[in-house]
Amino acid sequence: MLQVSDRNKDTRFMSCEQSPIFFLVDHENVHICAQDIDKLDSSPDTHVRVLVGAGQNKLPTDLVIAVQSLGERGQFIHLRESGKNALDFLLVYTIGQLRACYPDASFCILSSDKDYDPLIRHLKAEGLQIRRQTLRKDYTSQPSSSLMQSITGMLRKASSARPKSVTALCNWLRTKMPGCTDQELRSVIRSMEQSDMIKVSENKVLYRM
């Protein structure tokens, strides 16, 4: 488990050549996992914002790895104070921020909370492309044994040249394994951690192989 950093002061946005789509996760309502991130559209125009409540001070390591592997397209937004429907209001505020930067963007709220629906209908009437959807939990993702062996073998040989952060490790793997998808590479990182080959703490990677 990792400590969640306070990210809601970060207002940096990437410029996109095409209209981006933003997935906004109400993490108090749905506990998204790494496999959910893998199932989202992986195009360069897809962005993920995971909104975390004030009382949610820890997140699963594999989720943090999956979001951080998106680079600037993935971000956690941590609400500092608790209150009734506080995270819902923060999510709507975030949509407003993004809408101001990206007038042509579309949005998808990942939540089972139907209280968003009246607002969604209103925004659609105003011309905004927005929808709400729930998550499916009927899938698993495990790397093949040959892929796992290839990557762990390369890391053992790399020794002191091994990447020291999750972000650097993801980029290193993309370079070394250009034929693999990001989903496959993230599944290898998760499996290495589950097998105690690595330990991840606040984006830092400690190797135990």
Key terms for this structure?
209 residues; alpha/beta; Rossmann fold; Arc Repressor Mutant, subunit A; 2 domains; 5-stranded parallel β-sheet; two-stranded antiparallel sheet; 7 helices; 37% helix; elongated; disordered N terminus
Strand content: 15-25%
CATH architecture of the largest domain: 3-Layer(aba) Sandwich
Can you give the helix content as a percent range? 25-40%
Query: Largest beta sheet: what is the strand line-up?
Result: 5-3-2-6-7
Order of helices and strands: EEHEEHEHEHEHHHEE
Number of strands: 9
What is the mean predicted local confidence, pLDDT?
82
Termini gap: 21 Å
Kindly name the structural category.
alpha/beta
The CATH class of the largest domain, by name, is Alpha Beta
Overall shape: it is elongated
Rg on CA atoms, Å:
18 Å
| Main sheet properties | 5 strands, parallel
Low-confidence stretches: 1-17
Overall structural domain count: 2
What is the fold-level CATH name, i.e. the topology of the largest domain?
A: Rossmann fold
Q: In DSSP terms, counting alpha (H) and pi (I) runs of 4 or more, how many helices?
A: 7
Domain PIN-like: 24-127
InterPro entries: PIN7 (IPR041494)
Organism: Oceanospirillum sediminis
Pfam family, one: PIN7
